[in-house]
Amino acid sequence: xxxxxxxxxxxxxxxxxxxxxxxxxxxxxxxxxxxxxxxxxxxxxxxxxxxxxxxxxxxxxxxxxxxxxxxxxxxxxxxxxxxxxxxxxxxxxxxxxxxxxxxxxxxxxxxxxxxxxxxxxxxxxxxxxxxxxxxxxxxxxxxxxxxxxxxxxxxxxxxxxxxxxxxxxxxxxxxxxxxxxxxxxxxxxxxxxxxxxxxxxxxxxxxxxxxxxxxxxxxxxxxxxxxxxxxxxxxxxxxxxxxxxxxxxxxxxxxxxxxxxxxxxxxxxxxxxxxxxxxxxxxxxxxxxxxxxxxxxxxxxxxxxxxxxxxxxxxxxxxxxxxxxxxxxxxxxxxxxxxxxxxxxxxxxxxxxxxxxxxxxxxxxxxxxxxxxxxxxxxxxxxxxxxxxxxxxxxxxxxxxxxxxxxxxxxxxxxxxxxxxxxxxxxxxxxxxxxxxxxxxxxxxxxxxxxxxxxxxxxxxxxxxxxxxxxxxxxxxxxxxxxxxxxxxxxxxxxxxxxxxxxxxxxxxxxxxxxxxxxxxxxxxxxxxxxxxxxxxxxxxxxxxxxxxxxxxxxxxxxxxxxxxxxxxxxxxxxxxx
Length: 578
Description:
Blueprint: E1 2-5, E2 7-10, E3 13-21, H1 38-67, H2 69-83, H3 85-98, H4 102-118, H5 123-126, H6 129-143, E4 158-162, H7 167-170, E5 178-183, H8 191-199, E6 203-205, H9 210-213, E7 219-223, E8 228-231, H10 235-256, E9 272-277, H11 283-288, E10 294-298, H12 300-304, H13 312-325, E11 331-334, H14 362-367, H15 369-382, E12 388-392, H16 398-417, E13 428-432, H17 435-439, H18 441-444, E14 450-453, H19 455-463, H20 481-496, E15 500-503, H21 511-520, E16 524-527, H22 532-540, H23 544-554, H24 560-577
Parallel strand pairs: 3-4, 4-5, 5-6, 9-10, 9-16, 10-11, 11-12, 12-13, 13-14, 14-15, 15-16
Antiparallel strand pairs: 1-8, 2-6, 3-7, 7-8
């Protein structure tokens, strides 16, 4: 038995075989064929093509069940490419006329198609190149007898072990089959961690080299609470963790008692506890766990699921579903936040030396106003069906806010001229993620209706720590005095103008931080839905005055170690008194 220690990012215990998720490079044999080998190569191509179509048909069914019709249509376009008779004929011609192997022929035909599509002036058709490339790679992997790469093909219970899980990979995480997640890199605020918590999949990240020492199909135990992975566990260890899993179930059942209770402090102050979501499907969990609204709707996942930019109608339908399901409860819709580590297959992003300091979020939207306006129109139209608010990400100053609001004003004017209903008084907020935004909060609040603090990026930029780099994860500290002072500044500034401040970063869902944030005056806590009961429990067992005293004392401390130790003591005392 071997023990690996990493970063605990999603609580829970799971035991299952390893699914080693590696993407091997495609290596093609360009040596010429003998004349008598042509037919056998063509037969191999036919088999690979049939298998590819079968895989995509299965994937189409899964995509429809899990993500809806719009995602299933993406797979439909892939199937259409693979079943096009002209594609088969083009590959057949290359094999016979050029006397090359099937894999070389497929690669040649796909490259030819990609060149042709890249020269088309119509943007939508030009974007189809990504679909063609995806289909070509699938056929080549099947042709070369390489293992499939997609998590979507899983049909049995496994623990996924990978070097990393990209944001696009996270879309296909399905808790039906994926019982746990372990990666070489990543931390608590990576997209894999955030989604694992949302789906309640136990996860340990930042394990450094687990992919190099673990084997496909090997039995492992993952403890997402302690950040431990055990390979080839003994019968005794399996029994110990089975017992711990039962205890965790009991604890969770106790927490569930707080789901539908109001988040009222002992002295009668009601606090707004809401949830973060990535798709309309996530709303059910928000309701199930007693969320009083949605503090962050990450709309970029709608774009990441699609091989084309979602149309205004597609976006409108998604936002409308969420608005209607929440039945008048507030829903903060964040405009598309791509860039950094979030890429789109339908949009060519530049390769940047420092992508997290580069062209991302509101910067892309302001440079691509046509794309931005389509989204704003869709949100505005959906606002007629519920209580929607708009929030801009990565704002660093008033100039950006004014430019964004000017495009919003244009969208409103267009809809009004077209006679389309929307909430003309829709509230507009700013996501505080940069020190610049926090330090100019007094300027921003004059032209915004609310703030929401994104602690994931605010910590990263304030502390100059790459939150995805496991080598320096110990330096990423939300309880650093510098970060806490910025948070207090933002809250106090909003309150001075009679406006509210929420928090949608991962710190909002950390029970260790709840008392401190409550004492600092945070109005709204937004988190993964499954974390809501525990945060409500903390709020319901302390007075606002008591929390303010704790916050006041915390703000006199000089190191994150001192602050963390103090907050743990507060938590333990609170727990023992309940």
